[in-house]
Design a protein that fits this description.
The protein is built from 8 helices and 10 strands. The chain is an alpha/beta fold and about 260 residues long. It is globular, with a radius of gyration of 17 Å. Bound molecules: 2-amino-2-deoxy-6-O-phosphono-alpha-D-glucopyranose.
Length: about 260
């Protein structure tokens, strides 16, 4: 696993955006560049950077196919807190991506299990060049809560109280307004990508980063499954490294060619 430590949130997200743009620009096919995408505050800076790079003519998304990680069950696409709205407001509307190339799970599907099955089939048929993700404080990726299998695929998931409390900030601070269930790609879906890039920033993610890097592979910390991926990358800020050993930070900084 590669651990890239940047000074702060701005540098972390700039690094991630540069990485994504380089991958898109170097991609020669066959087919379109297939990219998995997250929501949340972690990727917001990445989307801002990608938009400005698009506007500066450094990248085009015209031939990029995206699949979002998750969606709340029971939220219509036009709900202010739906991940559909998040993605269109914060990214898709500002770049040249083709609507037909955007895929987001339907939170209002009549048969959510069938929706998940069809989404997984479609996503895994083409595979992914890169899956971008954030992490929850409890180590979840997408909505793969602790206990998720590394082989899990897209499915309906019950959210933990901790995740609903953490996400209440987007629902007027009221946990009861946060849906109890979500549709989410599985850990197996994410790990099937050629590369997985996870952004981890801030003091509230220190435990997740420690589990990801220094802990053993364990279903109670789904982020730790990244250790089993041949091309897993975490890009984090200095705040998030607070609970890592000094030696761990030095080790990874040394590999990246930065002396501490
Ligand atoms: C939600 C999303 C995750 C995201 C997590 C952390 O639970 N489903 O994909 O990684 O929140 O969000 P944030 O980046 O805002 O801390």
């Amino acid at each position: 696993m590669r651990l890239v430590i940047k000074k702060d949130y701005a540098e972390t997200t700039r690094w991630a955006a540069d990485y994504i743009v380089e991958k898109i620009n170097k991609f020669t096919g066959p087919g379109s560049f297939r990219l998995g995408l997250p929501t949340g505050s972690s990727p917001l800076g990445v989307y801002r950077e990608l938009i400005s790079m698009y506007k500066a003519g450094k990248v085009s998304f015209a031939d990029v196919v995206t699949y979002n990680m998750d969606e709340y069950l029971g939220l219509p696409a036009d709900h202010p807190q739906s991940y559909h709205r998040f993605m269109w407001d914060n990214f898709f509307s500002h770049v040249d991506i083709q609507k037909k190339n955007v895929h987001i799970l339907d939170g209002m599907a009549k048969d959510p299990d069938a929706e998940c099955e069809a989404y997984e089939k479609d996503a895994s048929a083409g595979g992914f060049q890169l899956f971008l993700g954030g992490v929850g404080q409890n180590g979840h990726i997408a909505f793969n809560e602790p206990g998720s299998s590394p082989c899990s695929r897209t499915r309906v998931i019950s959210l933990t109280a901790g995740t609903r409390i953490a996400n209440a900030r987007f629902f007027d601070g009221d946990m009861s307004k946060v849906p109890e269930k979500a549709l989410s790609v599985g850990m197996g879906t994410v790990l099937s990508a050629e590369e997985v890039l996870i952004i981890i920033t801030g003091y509230n993610k220190t435990k997740a980063l420690k589990a990801a890097v220094e802990g053993g592979v364990c279903q109670m910390w789904p982020i730790s499954f990244l250790q089993t991926h041949p091309r897993g990358i975490i890009v984090c800020d200095e705040e998030a490294t607070e609970e890592l050993k000094v030696g761990t930070v030095r080790h990874f900084r040394g590999i990246e060619g930065i002396s501490s």
